[in-house]
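sry for the spam today, last one i promise. struct tokens for design, 227 residues
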């Protein structure tokens, strides 16, 4: 008798859930979460005026995600009027660390796309990565503690394949004292709400300028190529 064996198809050829699809799904969920939180914040006046620490915690997600379009400082100053600086700092840094994990995940997904391969291997990016690799931890620490724009380092850590654990540690060690100083100032000075609103608007505009410039450059370059 012939022994009839049923040979199953290799796992790689079976249709279904693949690692690539899982990564894409996670990417979509991460982006969707931030958009929902941002829309809730912008559309709900009770939420914006809330003194709940949960609102402060979740506000860190849209305010520190990728290239943030809303500032975090005025909100920290606002909550510092009602809570001790250590409490504000603890809640803020907890939300920030989770957001930076999301940033790392999202940038890694985007950087691995074929559409970004040219940019990833460009001379300019390679020079930045080489410069960053000379003292990565120090660079992240200085950028995290000082008022300089932090978002470029979210790109660099991914392009440089800097370990996530070291990145989060650098963020924790740099952002914690920065947040505490902001909270301490807000707790001592008690800035009026109308000045915090004005500060929010000014910082919001300043955050949007780099994004607007990059969009204008892309629009001009696309028009030149089309001409």
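last one done:
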């Amino acid at each position: 008798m012939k022994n009839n064996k049923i040979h199953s198809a290799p796992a790689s050829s079976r249709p279904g859930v693949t690692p690539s699809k899982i990564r894409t799904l996670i990417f979509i969920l991460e982006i969707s979460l931030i958009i929902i939180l941002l829309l809730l914040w912008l559309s709900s006046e009770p939420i914006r005026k809330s003194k709940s620490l949960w609102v402060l915690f979740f506000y860190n997600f849209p305010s520190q995600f990728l290239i943030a379009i809303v500032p975090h400082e005025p909100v920290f100053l606002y909550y510092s009027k009602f809570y001790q600086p250590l409490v504000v700092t603890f809640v803020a840094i907890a939300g920030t660390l989770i957001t930076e994990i999301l940033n790392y995940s999202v940038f890694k997904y985007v950087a691995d796309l074929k559409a970004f391969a040219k940019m990833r291997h460009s001379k300019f990016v390679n020079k930045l990565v080489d410069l960053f690799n000379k003292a990565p931890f120090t660079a992240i620490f200085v950028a995290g503690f000082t008022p300089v724009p932090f978002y470029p380092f979210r790109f660099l850590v991914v392009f440089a394949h800097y370990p996530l654990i070291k990145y989060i540690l650098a963020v924790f060690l740099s952002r914690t004292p920065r947040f505490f100083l902001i909270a301490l100032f807000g707790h001592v000075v008690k800035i009026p709400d109308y000045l915090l609103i004005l500060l929010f608007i000014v910082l919001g505009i300043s955050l949007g300028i780099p994004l607007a410039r990059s969009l204008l450059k892309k629009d001009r370059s696309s028009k030149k190529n089309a001409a």
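The chain is about 75% helix and 0% strand. ok im logging off now
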